[in-house]
Amino acid sequence: MGPLVAPLVYCCPAMANSNQHHLLVPIRPAQITWRDGQPYSEQFGDVFFSRHNGWREAEYVFLQGNRLPERWRSLAGGTFVLAETGFGGGLNFMSACRHWLASTGPQCTLHYYAVEKHPWSVTDIRCLQRLFHQMVPAGGGGMPSDELMAALVDAYPPLTPGFHRLSLFGGRVLLTLAFADIEHWLDDIHIRAEAWFLDGFAPGRNPAMWSGAVLAGLARNTAPGGTASTFTAAGDVRRGLQAAGFKVVKTPGYGPKRDMLSAVFHDNVPMGPYPGSQKPWYMGTPDTARGKTVAVVGAGLSGAFTAEALARRGWQVTVIERHARAAQEASGNEIGVIFSKLSAFTGRDYAFYAHSYLHAIRQLPDLLPRDEHWQPCGVLQLAFDDKERRRQQQVIDSGVWPPEVVCYQEAAEAGNRAGVSLPVGGLFFNGAGWLSPRRVCEYLLARHSSVQLLNNTEVLRLEPDSGAWRILTADGKMVTHSDVVVLATAADTVRFEPTAFLPLSRIRGQVTPVPATTRSSRLGPVLCYDGYITPAVAGWHGVGATFSHRDSEAAARVDDDHENLNLLQDRVPCLYEALQVPQPGMFKHPVGRAAFRCHTPDYLPVVGPVPEVEAFNRQYAPLSKGQLKRPYEAGSYLRGLYVNTAHGSRGVTTTPLCAEMIAAYICGEPQPVGETMRQALHPARFVIRALTRNK
């Protein structure tokens, strides 16, 4: 089986350093006043929707303008991608959801992409709810307005920059809502929208929403034959859509408006160069039809979340594990911390870990029972020295992270929250907490009847076979035959020939369990410093964790237990004393658990399709000579082979999001992240870096 090469050709601009760090710009929420019960934008000096009936306007302009009800009634299954410019209070989204749920079956999924530069607050969205009884037509089927709005309010994300993937109505609607500038958003997505709601304020009041660059961005992200509709009939908008490749017609407008526009994207419009965020070597990823078979190698957190995400989408999943039980290596710890170090600066690493954290605390309540599996008890990140104190002050002063995400607490307030006396204050993360990796893996692998776990089976070879893969043991015995393979095998991923190019390393870490006492059991949240201690779970605290490069000893060590407890004693002496650790010498024998984290040189995971390395080196050889601006074909990839690994010490937080990314690749769905982030995690990044550095 040879590599899959997409036929499109791209002109690649010079590669910029996507990890340059600049101060993050905080979100400016919508400035709304309510006049006679109607929302009015102070920023743009206009109403958000028709005073006659905003709900009927949304249905007329956007639902009927794109012929969506009739298109949806003919769907037998699969996904539909709908996008909106200007999410506002979610009125158009709720109208679309109501029709989608009434017109399609549970086998259909609506992907709704939307952008909003000035998002509404939850308070204003609740005010909008009071209008629903007046606006939503009675009868006619569909979900009641209160349930529609309650679902959005419950899922609505904090007002932080970037992408937010929200699951509503049992997963039948996946909303990917970005709080961002529209031009940047259009440059950082790669979707094929089948319909667009163009709903910015009028061109005269908000011209940036209707610029030529924006309309060209719409075209780049529209499927052939895709439609668009808008309330405006302005000549500049009509001509801009035509220039971008849309066939535009005027139709009667809603209420007092004379005209509106409907448009269809030409099937035969040649695709121009992608913007700088969409590099050709990352664009040749093959899509795989749903409903086939997938083998996930590895039953740790990465493999378990991946298996669950695919089973939820209707795949038959075989998980192959070399040990007698799931989660016996780095994911075998009894407890881990759901947490992220937030920053005041941009950068692909900061953005990814913040995005993963916010995604995890949104998704886990829908996936896992709390009890012994996880608890959102909060995390206190102590300002344990001057450098950390300055960093935390930057986070708060930036204004990027709202109080419902993180807030600073002085020592006395932090101590009251923690239930123990603390020497310093720090950042409190609401929604963070702890998770039991071993229990979570076992639960996820048993959640769907379509997931089969094969234990005591070590896979060492993968062989392509007529568009699929044969998975083999060392002696050549075939374990299974699958259309798709996902390697979730940590550093052992390099043992497979197609992924041997990945620069993976192992870093040893040891966690020390300590029995709880009456005093230590008062600890409520997780405490993080340059180590951590968890609340008592089943009578034990977890204290960790060491971080040892170039250390291959697998057995636990007494010295590492001492290192963990000495650091606790230095940072939180009152809590250390409450534990009543035996003195002197503490432990005569190791009590901790050692494991190896898998890392990459840039400390980001590896998530995505596997490139055909020899073909890459031929295709992109001119990069080694600095030839960045010449046309290049899309990258060559091994069909049906993916990798999800190198989550390091943060896999508890990062694996839920990365599993959704893998599922999106395999099912041909829009990604839950932007292009910049997708590429930062892409396996092909190492091949391209080697070429550009002439190695």
Describe this entry's structure for a reader:
It is built from 19 helices and 34 strands. It has 695 residues and is of the alpha/beta class. An 8-stranded mixed sheet has the order 8-9-7-6-10-11-13-12, with helices on both faces. β4 and β5 form a beta hairpin. The two termini are 28 Å apart. 49% of the residues are buried.
Characteristics of this structure?
globular, 695 residues, disordered N terminus, 19 helices, alpha/beta, 29% helix, 34 strands, eight-stranded mixed beta sheet
In what range is the share of β-strand residues?
25-35%
Average predicted local confidence, pLDDT: 89
Number of helices: 19
Cα separation of the termini: 28 Å
Strand order of the largest sheet: 8-9-7-6-10-11-13-12
Integer-rounded radius of gyration: 26 Å
The number of E-state strands comes to: 34
